[in-house]
Amino acid sequence: MENTKLHEIVITAIVVKPSRPDDGLGGEGKFLITRRSAAKKRFPLMWTVPGGRLETADYINLPKDTKEYWYNVLEKTVRREVKEETGLDISDVEYVTSLATVHADGTPSLVISCMAKYAGGDIVFQEGESVEAAWVNLEEARGYDLIDGIYDELAMANERLLGKKSEWKRAN
Amino acid sequence: MSIAKKISLENAKQNKLFYFVANVVIYRESDSRCLILQRSAREKVHPLKWGVPGGKLEWDQLDISKPSRVNGDVLDFENAVENLLAREAKEEAGVDINGKLEYINSVAFVRPDETPVILVKFAAKYAGGEVILEADSFDKFAWVNAKEVTSYDCIIGVKKEIKETIDLFTKC
């Protein structure tokens, strides 16, 4: 009997670039989408958001933060994945939603979708990962061949942004 | 490749497989308190300590004939963590929670049997139901604020997570 509790864990990030009046983004926040390399086994040439599979090697050789625990593993992993894949720095990682998936080879995965703020850097692609990138709003995202479900996640991230804005307004 | 007929770890890589555990701090808006549960003396891990509901993701809970979306050759089951925590809150404490989860923190650790675990802590709003504890698992419960929780013998981190949850939901 196989161990039904074991899963691959994938962490993805919707990177948000908040807008300033003079940054050419038209005064609204934009999301980063990337186009997967043709060499990718899963979803070649489709548009998605950056992210990757967690490996024990990602933290096992780092010092633990407490006697037993490596803390903030989600933030650390997603920050590294985004940096490696796109060259960008991010901050303020938040959770958006989750998805269990079963791949064609039968492997069960859990995808944890996060959002984060763009914090600096220029786009530099990792060999074999992505071939194009675009900063888009929700409306513009519709024009890209996105992996199914990504648009919904962008919409959820957008709602969180708007929610924050209205909370901020109420608080002041 | 066609879609999977069964879920299996045969093609998975050992260093990319984890247990995924989620916990949820349940926040009650009416009095700004959170639910804590005392673990039974018979529990192997943390007997008699106070904690919050939660549990492990298990892929045998997925009905492979009923994915919420078919994505190319990948089967998707949306809201995996949301469903897990709703189920655990109901089973362990008899309560319903709001489906929108807020991220608190995440840790990685290695079990004594060497299985790597990713544990993610969330906050969610209480959505109704009388507290009924799962027999044999929990002995007592309490609704507490950040000050009251300090007089309970909690699992490490719980007091801080309760304070963070209350801060998160009262700031807006």
List its salient traits.
heterodimer, A: 172 residues, alpha+beta, 8 strands, 23% helix, globular, disordered C terminus, B: 172 residues, eight-stranded mixed sheet, two-stranded antiparallel ribbon, 2 helices, 10 strands
Q: What does this protein structure show overall?
A:
Chain A has 172 residues and is α+β, with helices and mostly antiparallel strands. Helices cover 23% and strands 35% of the residues of chain A. Chain A is built from 3 helices and 8 strands. Chain A has helices spanning 73-86, 138-141, 150-171; strands at residues 6-17, 30-36, 47-48, 51-53, 70-71, 89-102, 108-120, 130-136. Chain A is globular and about 55 Å long. Residues 168-172 of chain A have low confidence and may be disordered. The relative contact order of chain B is 0.25. In chain B, 16% of the residues lie in helices and 36% in strands. Chain B is globular. The N and C termini of chain B lie far apart (48 Å). In chain B, the strands form 2 sheets. In chain B, strands 1, 2, 3, 4, 7, 8, 9 and 10 form an 8-stranded mixed β-sheet that branches. A two-stranded antiparallel sheet of chain B has the order 5-6. Chain B is built from 2 helices and 10 strands; from the N terminus they run ββββββαββββα. At the A-B interface, strand 1, strand 5, helix 1, strand 6 and strand 7 of A face strand 1, strand 6, helix 1, strand 8 and strand 9 of B. Strand 5 (70-71) of chain A pairs antiparallel with strand 8 of chain B.
